[in-house]
Here is the input.
Amino acid sequence: MTYHHLEPIIGLEIHVQLKTATKLFSSVDNHAEGAASNTLISAIDVGHPGTLPSLNREALRFAVRIGLALGCRINSPTYFDRKHYIYPDLPKGYQISQFDVPVAEDGVITIQIPEGPRTKAIIHIERAHLEEDAAKNVHRDGKTLVDFNRAGTPLVEIVTRPDFRTPNEAKIFLLELRRILRYLAVSDADMEKGHLRCDANVSLRPVDANGLPVADPYYPKTEVKNMNSFKAVERALLFEIDRQGTLWQQGNPPMVTTTRGWDAVGNKTDLQRTKEEAADYRFMREPDIPPTDLSTYIQEETGSRPELPQQRRERFQSEYTFSEQAAATLTDDPALADFTERVISELFAWLAANPDIDADENTVADRYRQPIGKLVATWIGTKLLGALTERSEDIRTTHVTPENMAELLNIIYQKTITAQQATHVLEAMLDDGASPAQVIESLGLTTISDTDALGAIID
Ligand code: MN
Here is the structure.
């Protein structure tokens, strides 16, 4: 076959653990992290005969919320199906999932790509469906043990179309998806903890000199599994593109669909198996769950749609004059964005209350948004975040309250102390949550800027 070059075609399948109070089909506690093995389990979670699944409404609501945020159409009613396979982590022999009528279909997310052949990519979401998680196999001393605490945890599986052209695009999408899930408060979406698990399908497509696909090539995809971090996804895809590229160069392109596992230590993928076809799962309707009407959730979730990361980034730029970079940093975590906005509103309120400034709060915001924005970008976006990272803390665990941070910025703005002194004050605030006034007093730091007072001392 003649072709000009090979173009990577990448699609993602992402499993998201929902942080519902209870499991998908039982009333068992869904907070398995740190719990002793096999303590959070009921007969329903393992499908004992005579038990019936009872669908978790919170999980349905979360799935609808996710579908709407991804720009999907919500199917109502939606249907549940049995997906059959045999594995120790699935004692009932089938997973309750969704096959032909998932909760959500046909969405789209646009990502911005700072460096790459294209500056933005439109990623189509094929579907997002609800399903139960399996138990966890634990391999120890040559034996495999099974921990059922995870069995029945609600998952939303998100499947994209193969719209990614570089590993970097896939990583940027995953980071944005994690942000969206955190903004929606449906998952902690921590990849290292398995809340967000990503598989990738990758193949190389021969294209001609105009970038058009060469007619009728067969290029089976490889499914890559076992990538436990954002870095792993990028590295595994780079490896796989390289491996397949070599096969093409040798005139020996992949001819069958395969599943390969990422080996982070060896920095390579290993063949696991040739892929089952969908028919092998013998999908059939779940007879114990009736067609599920979602209209109430659609109505309520449409009426209370939270601001999404992209909207918040744009608002932070226009409302507070943050640079694109500062806006991205300050909105990366919704808790940090909330913290930042509370600090800013405190500062505007103080300025408005200052008798020297003859203006109401709106006028103050107009007049001072630029200096306040600069101050906040430096002291929260750079100094506070840097100190938190150094201490392995984050905005949720820190002693520093928005009120105290605002007070410190106010002091810095009034130039009562120097920037260097303010850095010491911030460190002390991080240590024990003291207020800036307390720290300044105990350190005897106050720089006197009042000229009358200074004059008196000089005299
Ligand atoms: Mn799945």
